[in-house]
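Here comes just one.
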Amino acid sequence: MFGLDTGLAIFLILCLLLACFFEFINGFHDTANAVATVIYTNSMKPTMAVVYSGILNFIGVLLGGITVAMGIVNLLPMDALLDTNAYHGIAMVLALLISAIIWNFGTWYMGIPSSSSHTLIGSILGIGLAYYFLPGEIGGTAVNWDKAKDTGMALLLSPLIGFSLAIIVMFTFKRLVKNEIIYKEPIPGKKPPIWIRMLLWATCGMVSFFHGQNDGQKGVGLIMLILIAILPAQFSLDSKVNLQSVHANVDAIEKIVMATDTTQFGKDEFTHYHNIKKHANHYHKAIEGKLFSSDIALTERFELRKDIVKITKGADKLLKSPNFAISGKESTHLKTEVKGAKKLIEFAPSWVIIMISISLGLGTMIGWKRIVKTVGEKIGKQHMSYAQGASAEIVASMGIGMASAYGLPVSTTHMLSSGIAGSMVAKKGLKNLQRKTITNILLAWVLTLPVTIILSGGLFLLFRAIFD
């Protein structure tokens, strides 16, 4: 398989299976958040609800693109972590997957809504931080802190946004809809009016679809992380992209950057300036007379990936710098060329997307009962009403959809459970929340990152010691 020896091939298959299992757990762990409202309000039978949600999760992954996936891949600067020993890549991937699965499965078993996104991000950061304890000079370069800060802000703000917006949506409902039935607890076994059911079907479908778009992409990113770590030569570049078209993008980036006034540049700007020039020159020479990655020697492909990473990252950094003096037209042109160059390295084979779609879709169809009860009955002192369920899902679908559009990983669990809490507060204030459940959810929220960082970092150092 891909020219690997038997041992490496076995580990590669094991890592791919574990990634699918993580996404499978993600499916039934997060599905409860999407289907809780329609099941709890008797708007849809459980079997139909989870199949409906599973199908829309599947479609969401297929149509979601790979922007969020690449955000996951870019949390670890792979060029800093890869070395000639493929088993080091396996140690990294196994530690990441095992720690994420342990925490995800444990919180699901306890019936605590917890974020798969937080879990995965924490596990990745744990790997990066573990490099501080290895001999060599990687240290602080083993975490892409800029990307980690963007991701961390998205995960930090999502529950606060969900909580606040749900209060606003509930007040809007109260002002516009005077039918008291939607503010009452569901009667067991009795279906609500058809218009309420249709609203809840729609919001459940939207959350499921956007969950597939966002969380499904995280699975795609995880698989690409595995493939790049273990098979860097085969998966460094998109074999379908013409190298000469990217040459044109790189050439345009270089010309815009080199023509700028550098008199106001500081140390960081000059570093990016020289990196762009250096790597653009290497790229131009390396692809001379070659059309596709298949024309490049296996040993040289990762160097081309590194060229594109350095060029595009350097350009992105310069665009954010106040000392980079270019016109608005040039700035727009540069952003377009950067996006064009990234297509060579930001990709996922169709089989990866389909594999994750199936894993997430199947996981969605089981394991929902534990968390549905928490979401429906244990967040507020009163059971969730129709309006509260709809408010939370409207907010969650909007939040997840916007995060996917901007390429940011966000927590479905946090968005929806905080939305439920916000809708409860909108009815009777903070006293309407169950302290024990809220405490458990907050503890899971606070502990997920440190626990998964320590767990994955410790496992990584252990596996490195074993493989060395």
Remarks:
- Residues 237-342 form one domain.
- Residues 194-230 form the longest helix (37 residues).
- The chain is about 75% helix and 0% strand.
- Residues 380 and 424 are 6 Å apart (CA to CA).
